[in-house]
Amino acid sequence: MRSRSFLTGFLLAIGSASAALLFRRRAARRRERAELYLADGTLVSLVDGQPGADRLLEHARELLTAARA
Amino acid sequence: MASPPAQALADLTEISTQVEAAVVFDREGTVLGSTVDDERAGRLAEAALELVRAADEAVTRADAMEDLVQLDVALADGSVFVAADGDRLIAATTAPEPTVGLVFYDLKSCLRGLAEEPEAKPKPRRRTATKKTGDEKP
């Protein structure tokens, strides 16, 4: 009986930690975006998954890596 | 006495606590000044030019008629900023979730400083991004 409740608690803890990790990763990915400001004040906003956004995010990652290398 | 780009970048890093690294370059990719060593500055300028080209293509795809003047890319582990003033550009990196408007203001000020003739000017004061507590007097 005691070992069963320990196992339940252990599984619950593992499940909670995994869910928190997944949630944080998804939230971080959702925040990734590019904002392009044009001369007339127009803003073009691109989020991960939109056409052209992947390339912009990739180049920005390269730049960030080069700056911190 | 430091060259105008070096002085402008020194002022930038003194004023803005959010900017980690910055490089000033032209549209050919020639580095005019940077806060990092020459090798890294070259790589930064090259990556920033690629970023600007990709952004120009994205603007064209969006059927926008105006030119790109500045951009920022927010990533999970930091942000990248590029601002342009004619043929001169500045790229900078920051930690995640910076104060976007403030960083752009500082980068534009740096570019404007480069466009002006070097003159004797007062030493800039350090500024930090602080949150309002709400109990301050107006």
Model description:
The complex is a heterodimer of chains A (69) and B (138). Chain A is of the alpha+beta class. Chain A folds into two domains: 1-31; 33-69, no CATH class. Chain A contains two helices and two strands; from the N terminus they run αββα. Chain A has helices spanning 2-31, 53-68, and strands spanning 33-38, 43-47. In chain A, a hairpin with a 4-residue loop joins strand 1 and strand 2. Chain A is elongated. The model of chain A has no long low-confidence stretch (mean pLDDT 86). Chain B is α+β, with helices and mostly antiparallel strands and 138 residues long. Chain B has one domain: Dynein light chain 2a, cytoplasmic (Beta-Lactamase, 2-Layer Sandwich), CATH 3.30.450. Helix content of chain B is 38%, strand content 25%. Chain B contains three helices and five strands, in the order αββαβββα. Chain B has helices spanning 4-15, 38-61, 100-115, and strands at 19-26, 31-34, 68-75, 78-85, 88-94. A five-stranded antiparallel β-sheet of chain B has the order 2-1-5-4-3, sandwiched between helices. Chain B is globular, with a radius of gyration of 16 Å. The chains are: A alpha+beta (69), B alpha+beta (138). The A-B interface holds A 28-29, 31-40, 42, 44, 46, 51-53, 55-57, 59-64, 66-69 and B 20-21, 36, 40, 43-44, 47-48, 50-51, 54-55, 57-59, 61-62, 64, 66-78, 80, 91, 93. Strand 1 of chain A pairs antiparallel with strand 3 (68-75) of chain B, so a sheet runs across the interface.
Spell out the blueprint of helices and strands:
The complex is a heterodimer of chains A (69) and B (138).
Chain A: H1 2-31, E1 33-38, E2 43-47, H2 53-68
Antiparallel strand pairs in A: 1-2
Chain B: H1 4-15, E1 19-26, E2 31-34, H2 38-61, E3 68-75, E4 78-85, E5 88-94, H3 100-115
Helix pairs in contact in B: 1-3
CA radius of gyration of chain B: 16 Å
Return residue spans of chain A where pLDDT drops below 50 for at least 5 consecutive residues.
none
Q: How many separate structural domains of chain A? A: 2
**Secondary structure tally: strands of chain B:** 5
- CATH topology label of chain B: Beta-Lactamase
User: Globular, elongated, flat, extended or rod-shaped: what is the shape of chain B?
Assistant: globular
% residues in beta strands of chain B: 25-35%
Taken together, the total number of domains of chain B comes to 1
Q: What integer is the average pLDDT of chain B?
A: 86
Largest sheet of chain A: 2 strands, antiparallel
Q: Write the H/E string of chain A, N to C.
A: HEEH
At the first level of CATH, the class of chain B is: Alpha Beta
Output the structural class of chain A. alpha+beta
Number of helices of chain A: 2
User: How many angstroms separate the termini of chain B?
Assistant: 41 Å
CATH superfamily of chain B: Dynein light chain 2a, cytoplasmic
Q: Order of strands across the biggest sheet of chain B?
A: 2-1-5-4-3
